[in-house]
Amino acid sequence: MTVFTQRKSGCVWRKAMCLGLLFFLLIGCEGGKQEKVEQDRLVRLDNLQQLPAGQIEPDSQALRIGVGAILSPQGTALSYQPLIDYLGRKMGKPAILVQRKTYQELNDLLARNVVDLGFICTGAYVEGARKEAMSLLVVPRINGKTTYRAFVIVPAASPVREFPDLRGKVFAFTDPLSNTGYLYPLSLLQGMGQQPETFFGRTIFTYSHDRSMAAVMEGIADGASVDSLVYEFASRRNPEIARQTKVIWESRDFGIPPVVVPRSISQEKKALLKELLLGLHHDVEGEKALAVLGVERFVEPAPGLYGF
């Protein structure tokens, strides 16, 4: 091998070494960047910081009123806004409607004292009271009663006549904490030795009673269990609901969906809210708010109304 050839081979070897070194450096940089991206994406569950209490709601001075998703957000806003505005005026502060998709989310807000007042479902109250997260304040009286029932409804033209006839059908539940929209039909199934997954062909959650009724009317579901008060009130407003659906099953009476406050609310605020709600029917503006809700008046709950 000549000297020239040796020098040429040495140059080629050194160039190869340099390129190889550059390649590994680039790979290392990209790997470092990728590792940093992965670290940035990683949520450390052992290093989570609690949200400051003041950032949960935008106005800490406002009266915050939570309304369970018994109705869809559109229906809730229309029905409850006059009452919310009334309470705000009487207490001399802005009043805010607070809504969440599920009953459990509103229960959590009550437990954390994020809302001052809650209009919730019976099943949600029983669960919240069991966890000592809320206190019963007053209950609505409707048609002279403080009770209601579950109605199992199907399309008017459906051949289904009784609850057992819904085997293999599509059934609409309201919410996992809904007394009439889930817990009651679940108890019926358990009494038959069945479970939703094996009895029905398919189940869906609508997260409001008016949506469950719409699901039956529109043919999305073959049946649903709904709040009797919501069904009757909605049918009076829209007779088409009664024409397109029929009730095939009724439950026994349950304690009506109540009005509650957080367990940790101040006694002064609790007493004022209770006084305002109990006296609502004596005020002209209060009567108007009650009429929009379809409520005669708010009253003290009878002992044992909710079974404890």
Description of the molecule:
With 308 residues, the protein is of the alpha/beta class. It folds into two domains: 59-143 and 256-299, Periplasmic binding protein-like II (D-Maltodextrin-Binding Protein, domain 2), CATH 3.40.190; 147-255, 3-Layer(aba) Sandwich (D-Maltodextrin-Binding Protein, domain 2), CATH 3.40.190.10. Helix content is 45%, strand content 18%. The protein is built from eleven helices and 13 strands. The strands form three sheets. It has a six-stranded mixed β-sheet with strand order 2-1-3-12-4-13, with helices on both faces. It has a five-stranded mixed β-sheet with strand order 8-7-9-6-10. Helix 2 packs antiparallel against helix 11. The protein is globular, with a radius of gyration of 30 Å. The protein starts with a helix and ends in a 9-residue tail after the last strand. The model is unreliable at 1-58 (pLDDT under 50).
* Shape summary: globular
- In total, the number of strands is 13
Main sheet overview: 6 strands, mixed
Indicate the proportion of strand residues.
15-25%
Note the gap between the termini: 103 Å
- Please indicate the count of domains: 2
Order of helices and strands: HEHEHEHEEEEHHEHEHHEEEHHE
Give unreliable regions as ranges. 1-58
Radius of gyration: 30 Å
**Helical residues, percent:** 40-55%
Mean pLDDT: 84
What is the strand and helix layout of this fold?
Elements: H1 3-41, E1 63-67, H2 73-91, E2 95-98, H3 103-111, E3 117-119, H4 122-130, E4 134-141, E5 147-148, E6 150-155, E7 170-173, H5 179-191, H6 196-199, E8 202-205, H7 209-217, E9 223-227, H8 228-237, H9 240-244, E10 245-250, E11 254-255, E12 259-262, H10 267-278, H11 284-293, E13 297-299
Parallel strand pairs: 1-2, 1-3, 7-8, 7-9
Antiparallel strand pairs: 3-12, 4-12, 4-13, 5-11, 6-9, 6-10
Helix pairs in contact: 2-11
